[in-house]
Design a protein that fits this description.
It is a single chain. This protein has seven helices and six strands, in the order ααααααββαββββ. It is α+β, with helices and mostly antiparallel strands. Strands 1-2-6-5-4-3 form a six-stranded antiparallel β-sheet, with helices on one face. β3 and β4 (173-176) form a beta hairpin.
């Protein structure tokens, strides 16, 4: 009598059940979520989220998550399509993370302090609002001045900004890189209890924040 031994195919030994693929899918999501949190935190803390290269840095960092993703899906027959889809998703997540952060408050303070000032303007107060995530609104630094003529002061400051390489994107709004400057003839809403202008003078707010192009 000849004994026969049945050898299970190698692929069958490593075959993953449906429940196993569900667990692997959950594992991919957990890895991506944790990595996205770390990348986003690193961008905000380092200030790269507020730079023009922020999205590129975030995308490159998110693509690192393809390494653990490969180990989780390498047993699938359609692993190439899964990795292609994962690449697209990670790129989109990276672009989103790179667009979250605005310029740091310290950098905006420096830019705001270097802006041209109208002749005879008196600085009444300075206010700052910090919002690092830049979701509904970004960090902002506002200088409130008292000027003799608000319209003339805005025209002078605007001419100075254009001469310094700023772009006029709207009435009273200018952009340069990721920075934006907004001029208004009233106290900015972010200023708590704004001081009144001295007799015979008018208010002018010069606010520095992230550029918002229409």
């Amino acid at each position: 009598m000849v004994a026969t031994t049945f050898m299970e195919p190698a692929e069958a030994k490593h075959r993953v059940t449906a429940a196993g693929w569900v667990l692997r899918g959950i594992g991919v999501l957990v890895v991506w979520s944790a990595w996205a949190f770390l990348v986003g935190a690193a961008l905000l803390l380092s200030g790269n989220g507020g730079k023009a290269a922020g999205p590129a840095v975030a995308v490159a960092a998110m693509l690192v998550a393809l390494v653990p993703t490969w180990f989780l899906v390498r047993g699938a027959r359609s692993r190439r399509w899964l990795l292609a889809g994962a690449t697209v998703v990670l790129v989109l997540v990276g672009l989103f993370l790179g667009s979250l952060g605005g310029p740091s408050l310290a950098r905006m303070t420096g830019v705001g302090a270097s802006l041209p000032v109208a002749t005879g303007a008196q600085l009444l107060t300075t206010s700052s609002v910090e919002n690092t995530l830049c979701l509904q609104e970004c960090s902002q630094v506002t200088h409130l001045y008292a000027v003799l003529d608000s319209d003339a002061a805005q025209s002078k400051i605007g001419s100075g900004l254009l001469a310094s390489g700023w772009d006029a994107v709207d009435l009273g709004t200018f952009c340069k890189g990721q920075f934006g400057v907004r001029l208004a003839d009233v106290a900015d809403p972010t200023i708590v209890d704004p001081p009144p202008a001295p007799p015979g003078m008018e208010l002018l707010s010069v606010s520095t924040s992230r550029c918002e192009r229409p």
